[in-house]
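Protein data sheet
==================
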Amino acid sequence: MILLTNAPTAITAACRAARAAVRTPASRAGGSTLHLTHGAARAGVWALALLCCAPAGRLAADTISNADCLMCHGDPANPITAAGKTAPLALFATNAFQNSVHAKLNCTDCHDAVKDMVHPAGLPPAQCASCHTNESAQYAGSVHGASKARGPSAAAGCADCHGAHDIIAVTNLTSPVFKLNLAVTCAKCHSNPGLTAEYRMKYPQVASQYAESIHGRALMKMGLIVAPSCNDCHGTHNIGRSVDRSSPINHANVAATCGKCHLGIEQTYNASVHGKLLAAGGQNGPVCVDCHSVHEIAAPEAGNFKAASDEKCGSCHQDRLAHYRDTYHGKAMLLGKPNIAPEVAACYDCHGYHDILPASDPASHLAKANIVATCQKCHPGATANFAKYITHADPLDATHYPQLHYTFVAMTWLLIGVFVFFGAHTLLWLFRSGYLWAHDSKTFREAKVKTQQGEDWFTRFPPYERFLHFLVVTSFLLLVLTGMPLKFYYTNWAKVIFGMLGGTEAARTLHHFGALITFLYFGLHLAKLLVKAWQGRVRFQGGDWRSKWKSLKWALFGPDSMIPTWQDAKDFIAHQKWFFGRGPKPQFDRWTYWEKFDYFAVFWGVFIIGMSGLVMWFPQFFCHFMPGWMINMALIVHSDEALLAAGFIFTVHFFNTHFRLEKFPMDTVIFSGRISKTEMLHERRRWFARLQAAGKLNDFRSKDEWERWKAIARSFGYLFFGAGLVLLVLIIYAMASRLAH
């Protein structure tokens, strides 16, 4: 009786004695039996007898000391054999445990499933709930605990975050859940490719995203302990899903969660139109993460924050974003470096940051009393007129923007009319030339060769006019190269061109330089016309009024004038008859009707494009005497007229001077300034006959040295020609892609 009463103590002692003789362990169903050597068997025979005779459960868990557990779990040389496989017992980190917060506890305080020293494998893990009741209850309701409750799961348990036997205080710098280390601890699962794929985690790159965010850099790189870590936003033991209404990351709770650190901003946000919308609907209205992102939160002055903010606003206000991108600000934002160019305004520059209010609210940045001050943040000289600029205007909306709508319609019909008329004219000419080539190729080819040969050459363009044409070509290509990417900002080639030019700032400077060259050649040409008129004043001196009128009429409407006359109309009709084979090919004087159209197209273009461009270049100045919506109108006119000019030059004009079979690949007269007698007789017989009758042929006989520099001139010509063709293809592609969408 005494033996049985003292059995646990005796058995424990016997086990300790037997333990000294252990050589190999074995495992059977229902428990483990120690296989002893012959000498050790005799030494432990009484202990084994007692073990067999003792009632079940007599070796109570509360009598098992840590030293008892370490007899097996403290020796790395002690293996266990099960199912034919040998493996070491789970070893216990003695030193780590002695330094842990649980050093004063017994093993069985946590491993309460262990009832006997000799126990089966696969017992439940250590239980934390017996001591940490509140934390365990929170964990059970968390996303991790719920996953565990459903069955086998890789969801994190207590030991995955806090450690096992080496648990140390949260305030210890080396603790895996200390604030500086927590992100790395969470990343063990949330950046594990296998786990993120298996559980379809929404943010598989969360660790790297957080590390590069303003929060992650502040905490992990700068050591600012006040910066938030994972648990500050997601909670500690009660981590929930975003769809759980009690979760701190639920849409309705995000502002309050961020407000724990950003209290002032939360108060401002709550008073804004977004905050009021959230308060009214719970799940409605954008919150912090919708604008700042979830884990990739960036500093406002860093990286691509401005452009990204526009995208965020546009995700809800798509129509506003689309029309914002029709403005210079929107285009430059996509094509340039918005955080380096301070004059590029993003949505929040006008509407505010967290204090966004409707324009009807007196406190809004866009309220009537505040809008001028808002504009003056970027445009110091802005006035009330300037503030009437429409930042989200829709030219297709005739109800709200009638003046812009009808301007857009007029420019669209102008574009269509010009291209339809001259497109048909060009195609008819091309077909007629092709017909002649096909039916009499030998004669046509001989005629083409003869126009470029001959001993007699006559000056058609003096050096001054050739110089002006050089300015026209260079400035025009520069303007198209720097302007068309803005019009077609949504294409990849626009971004490539602006990147090659050095960004929006460099492109804008080059565009302005091209405009100055345009004004220069236009002014030089007008000056020449005035000088020519002054030199011809003698025609109007003396004589009666009939003589003066005749002289003035000759100067304005004579064959050497670029002003269209009735003769040009007759030439046009005769040319159309030739296209259809209804008449002979007409002969022309010094200027043809299509050359006069080109000439006045430049006058029209310089005036319309130049004036509208000046309005956009100096908007504050012009808004001293005109409303700001005129800037919107100027943009429509400038953009569409530029497209008309580029399209006309690169198609119709290029056909007239490059693609006509008798001119291909280039009519060099504008570079050489001279024309052969053969070509004059072939195309401009009336001019030759007029000069011959007036005895002025020798006055036009060429004396320049074209042969010495024609290779250079042709090289420039082909360069300009090739650049124009490339730009034409890009423009057509951009327009087609826009129509496709």
Remarks:
- The two ends are 96 Å apart (CA to CA).
- The beta strands are 22-28, 31-36, 79-82, 85-88, 457-459, 674-676.
- The mean pLDDT is 83.
